Please model this.
Amino acid sequence: MSHKGSQVGPATVEQVLYIGIHPEAFAPGKLPPGLTAAQLTVQIERGWAAVREQGVEGELALIGTDPDEAEADLRNRLSARTFGVVLIGGGIRLMPEQTLLFERIVNVLTDAAPGIRLAFNTSPENSLEAVRRWLP
Model:
């Protein structure tokens, strides 16, 4: 667990918000080579299902790439429910063209959900591992 040995403790709420770019929102040619939007959708759904199968509650938020629209969506979700951990997917964090979107998401989370713990996966398949690092 990432919080072990850290002055930053685990999440105080066991609700997870899993944020990823909706596969259909990627511009043509922007998905990794050999990966289709349909295949990415299946991977994301499997990753989220693995989290849910372990009894972790929360929401899957598949957003577009427009920072203003993403902010509005996330603010609505954060005002309706309290989350202890947010998992921000690699399509947001690892693609240089999504830097502005990533910055906006982090700043919205800092503003609207003080104390939320940030988790990062490297693929949809290791989402559960990423979330577990910050759950109590």
Observations:
- The domain at 15-132 is CATH 3.40.50.2300 (Rossmann fold).
- The first strand starts at residue 15 and ends at 21.
- Helices lie at 37-53, 67-80, 90-93, 99-112, 127-132.
- The mean pLDDT is 93.
